[in-house]
Amino acid sequence: MHYFYRHYVAVLCLFTSAFLPAQSGPDILWQRCYGGSSEDPGGIIEPTSDGGYLTVGTSSSQNGDVTLNQGLTDVWVIKLSASGGILWQRTMGGSGYEIIGGVKETLDGGYIVAGSSESSNGDLTDNYGLYDAWLIKLNALGAVEWQKNYGGSDLDSFRDIQVLADGSFIVLGNTSSTDGDVTGMNGIRDVWLVNVDATGTLLWQATYGGSEEDLAGRMVLTTDDHLVVCGVSRSNDGDVSNNHGAEDVWVFKVDLEGNMIWERSFGGSGEDRGIRVVQVTDQQFVICGFTRSSDEDVSFNNGFIDAWVFKLNSAGELLWEHALGGSDLDQLITCFELPNEDLLMVGRTRSTDGDVAFNHGATDVWLVRTDAFGEIIWERTYGGSADEGGGSFHWKPSGNCVVAATSYSNDGDVSGNHGFSDVWIFELEADQTGIPETGKATDLKIYPNPTSGSLMVGFQLEVPSLVGYSWFHSNGALITEHRSVAMAAGYHMINLSEQGLPAGAYQLVLIMDGQRIVREVVKL
User: Fold this and answer.
1) Strand runs (DSSP E) across 222-326, as ranges?
2) Do 137 and 144 meet the contact criterion of CB atoms below 8 Å apart?
3) Other CB atoms closer than 10 Å to residue 437's CB: what's the count?
4) pLDDT value at residue 442
5) What CA–CA distance (Å, rounded) separates 249 from 318?
6) 418 vs 40, 99, 198, 415, 422, CA distance in Å?
7) Residue 65 and residue 1: Cα distance in Å, rounded?
8) Which of 127, 318, 376, 486 sits in a 20 to 30 Å window from 78, CA-based?
9) Phi, psi of 281, rounded to the nearest 5 degrees
10) Rounded CA gap, 225 and 202, in Å?
11) pLDDT reading at 45 higher than 70
């Protein structure tokens, strides 16, 4: 099977910028396109411990920002500074098609990249069938430490990856194979979980599904050390129960040995897909994706395809759901819970009505903020006259948000496109999504700042409160988190340990009885 990237025809703008309607939501602070003269789609971004970011995609170029291409499409990894400058980049692949799935920073400061490949040359040494699932371990400078492929004689792919505390990796994907590394296939295509150690050696694997096609979306590592997976299922047997129609959102929970704890299907009589699951307050879960239904679990549909977001309790039972969008295509790709329990979500939209106030051209990146029950607070689109689509974002404790997307435009919000599709990264200002700095603590003092040793924090509590703190890199990546402890009313002075932190700028987040206060601290 070959993969091609569709390029939509750009829509001519009917109005000049003087007549464009005002939009709510945050403004762009900076933006940049990355790529060459061919197809270079992206949409995945991860914060790194040095204060920068890692973004990954696929590339068909061998010019511009891309120095090498070995085949049809290569996996492309770009290391960025906090302001979006390229520190290093590299492509990996063979003479065929390689597709990106996910990436994470590893415990040793390197990176683990997950995807799929049909090649058996170049950077790959083997291929078991049509497409293999593929892992690549990089060091901190992007050099390959090892790479391995997994699967059987049919189609196998990796879509997401998590790093466990012991340094091993849990990888989520799909399989159509019944041989090689794959055992226990249920039907046409199964969701596939694989656990490998820090060197890529297979520890265990498990398949999940029924007699039809069942596809993986993304997974979350929960606070009780389990995995919750979301995706789509056409089955109504095997591991899957209570299918509502053509395709359902399928959510299931497993332990870290792959044993299923519970599973649920959600949807209506049409096509319903889950793309991302996140854990939120009270060990509950929010799933985002899209729906074509307007019955059963889906109470309303605005048009052709609606973005769909719903919340589950810790046992996987539906608490609420909302279909968002207009009369055209609307999808939500990822979600994040803000400190006040509002939800921030990113996806794409082609609508110009309903919940969508404005569209720049064809398909826009769509940012939506809702309250804790899925009711829209504001929404905003970003893009140009051609196609854009949001893939993921990183929210900082300051409230700024860095978005990774794909863009075909070179106008509107987008500048610097190299040709066809580019990786598009942009940072948004806080605009009410920041950590609130009001609370029950007064007379807050942090000193010395800058510091070369210990850091003292003094504060007055008006009432007995729970107090904790966390250290973050300047890009918002969590370093350490210290659980809250009960403190009496009155004045307190505490010594915050920041031993082991190298020189640099950090964000200190103080949690005081549910309120959060963020301050920048400089380590000399």
Assistant:
1) 227-233, 248-254, 260-266, 272-280, 284-291, 306-312, 318-324
2) yes
3) 12
4) 57
5) 12
6) 9, 21, 37, 9, 7
7) 28
8) 127
9) -55, 145
10) 20
11) yes
User: What does the buried/exposed string (b/e) look like for 307-343 if buried means 16 or more CB atoms within 10 Å of the residue's CB?
Assistant: bbbbbbeeebeeeebbbbbbbbbbbbbbbbbbbeebb
Query: pLDDT (tens digit, 9 = 90+) per residue, 84-122?
Result: 999 999 999 999 999 999 999 999 999 999 999 999 999
Helix, strand, or coil (residue 481): strand
Domain finish residue from 202, 233, 253: 202
At 451 the three-state DSSP class reads strand
23 secondary structure, DSSP code: -
Looking at residue 386, what DSSP letter applies?
Answer: S
509 lies in which domain range?
441-523
What's the pTM?
A: 0.84
* Distance between CA atoms of residues 186 and 37, nearest Å: 43
Give the CA distances from residue 394 to residues 57, 173, 276, 292, 332, in Å, rounded to whole numbers and listed in that order: 16, 23, 14, 28, 15
pLDDT digits (tens, 9 = 90+) for 256-291: 999 999 999 999 999 999 999 999 988 899 999 999
Provide the 3-class DSSP secondary structure of residue 283.
helix
Looking up residue 495, the CATH number of its domain turns out to be: 2.60.40.3080
Q: Using one digit for the tens of pLDDT, what is the confidence trace for 313-335?
A: 999 999 999 999 999 999 999 99
* Tokens describing residue 344: 């921030």
Cβ atoms within 10 Å, residue 354: 17
Please tell me the predicted confidence (pLDDT) of residue 11. 29
Work out how many domains the chain is built from and give that number: 2
Domain boundary among 162, 186, 202: 202
